[in-house]
Amino acid sequence: MKVEGRIFLFIAFFAFVMAVVYAVWAKLGSSYHAIEPVGLVALLLTGGLALIIGTYFAFVARRLEPRPEDNDDAEVSDGAGEVGFFSAGSYWPIAVAFAAAIGGVALAFWEIWLIVIAIIAILFMVGGLVFEYHIGPNHQ
């Protein structure tokens, strides 16, 4: 988590520096000497959001044991082993993507009835994906 924290803190620093450069450049470069607010706000918000994520990762990294990515002297074999469980035969991700595509088309054309159908479909498909391997307490 230390590596991710550093990456996001660097992005935040870079965005804040570029916001200052952008504001000065826009003020000096325009004929009416005004700062263009949309780009400045976008850079400030980007820096702020990256700062939030970076400080969260840095805070969490202090509570977790170091990973091989956090050790400068780590070998490739230090990261060997089970990474996680990935379902090879699941069709739910395709269904989620299809429902999200319907939602995107519905929002693009602002069809309220299709937005409602897309939201219901997305919720159903995500529920299927999340509970794909869930077995209740009465099953063996």
Secondary structure layout:
Layout: H1 2-29, H2 37-63, H3 92-109, H4 112-130
Q: In brief, what are we looking at here?
A:
The protein has 140 residues and is an all-alpha fold. Helix content is 66%, strand content 0%.
Structure description:
The mean pLDDT is 88. Helix 1 runs antiparallel to helix 2 and helix 3 packs antiparallel against helix 4 (112-130). The chain has helices at 2-29, 37-63, 92-109, 112-130. 66% of the residues lie in helices and 0% in strands.
Low-confidence sequence ranges: none
Give the termini distance in whole angstroms.
37 Å
The class by helix and strand makeup works out as mainly alpha
What is the mean pLDDT?
88
Number of strands: 0
Largest sheet: none
What is the approximate shape? flat
Q: Bin the strand percentage.
A: under 5%
Query: What is the radius of gyration?
Result: 23 Å
Identify the notable features of this structure and list them briefly.
single chain; 140 residues; mainly alpha; 4 helices; 66% helix; flat
